[in-house]
Amino acid sequence: MIQLAIIGPTASGKSDLAIKIAKKINAYILSIDSLSIYKGIDIVSAKPSNEELQEVRHFGIDVLYPNEYFSVDIFIRLYKEVLQKCQDDAKNLIIVGGTSFYLKTLIEGLSNIPKIDDTTKKRVEKRLLNLQESYDFLCTQDSEYMKNISTNDRYRIEKALLIYEASKLTPSEWFRQNPPKPVIENLPIYNIDVDRDILRERIKKRTQKMLEGGLIDEVCRLEQRYTRLPHSMNTIGIVEVLEYLDSKVTKDEMCENISTHTAQLAKRQQTFNRTQFEGVINAPLEELEGLILSSIKL
After folding, report:
1. Taking the model in full, what pTM does it have?
2. Residues 158, 161: Cα–Cα separation, whole Å
3. Are residues 199 and 291 in the same domain?
4. CA gap 81, 143 in Å, rounded
């Protein structure tokens, strides 16, 4: 069975390339996109079209509702399920998307967390009623672990408290004693190398296409159904539309903000992809298909 990953910044052409190659090597596609996993977030996430989804079977798309919890450990479980499906169906697998952190987690693995019983959960829930106090307590116990966690990051504070309460060890000590194990090894990774000026132009065109495709209506529907509270509602494309709906910016300003913030995201993605993986094959989009196919032995 062949497995490979295609990464690159937003609007670089990853999805189209993955579909082309999947057709030629008899593969399924696993999306690593932090928004495409949600049902109803279609235009904002620039999901593949229904026609494209019918051409090649995709996984990791429309898995959860926007108000449902999602984390990398859920993604790892999803990957294992997809891997089994590929083996059962005699298919290869292409992992593709812009959230390369998920891919990095697959390669490096996650540490197991201690078994957490209901009593521990209730005790932690009670402590979390005072988030600042919980944060301060963890800082006194494990400043090393907490230095990269903000005072309002409830999810990570809760995770740290659960580990501490369940194991009676600081998170740093727990992870030292329980190092992560790779989920996948020797995975070929192909990164789309694209000039930033070209990418900015693509992003502007895509933003306009999203607007013409019903972006504002989609965000209105999402807000009406899920409110603004879910984490998924605090993402590029949604935040800017909500500002427009609140009459804080004009429609032109909204579009400009989406393009600017998306370009900033793309820059961060390029930096991450360049610095966080070893042995990555970098090439322009128009060269990658040939490079990938020439390296595969079917």
Report:
1. 0.84
2. 5
3. yes
4. 37
Q: How far apart are CA 220 and CA 225, in angstroms?
A: 9
Both tokens assigned to 131: 């988030």
Question: Where does a domain end: 134, 152, 177?
Answer: 177
- 273 and 140 both lie in a single domain: no
CA distance 123 to 12: 46
Compute the distance between CA of residue 275 and CA of residue 293 in angstroms, rounded to an integer: 25
Q: How far apart are CA 99 and CA 235, in angstroms?
A: 13
Range of the domain at 148: 118-177
Write phi, then psi, for 109 (nearest 5 degrees): 85, 170
Distance CA 195, CA 10 (A): 12
For residues 167 and 68, membership in a common domain is answered with no
Q: State the average pLDDT for the chain.
A: 94
Q: What is the CATH number of the domain that holds 239?
A: 3.40.50.300
Q: Coil, strand, or helix at residue 26?
A: coil
CB 47 within 8 A of CB 10: no
d(CA 263, CA 49): 23
Q: List residues bridging with 94 in a β-sheet.
A: 4, 29
The helix (run of H) or strand (run of E) holding residue 167 is helix 154-167
Interval 82-99: pLDDT, tens:
999 999 999 999 999 999
Q: Is the domain of 18 the same as that of 164? A: no
Q: How far apart are CA 196 and CA 266, in angstroms?
A: 9
Structural domain count, the chain = 2
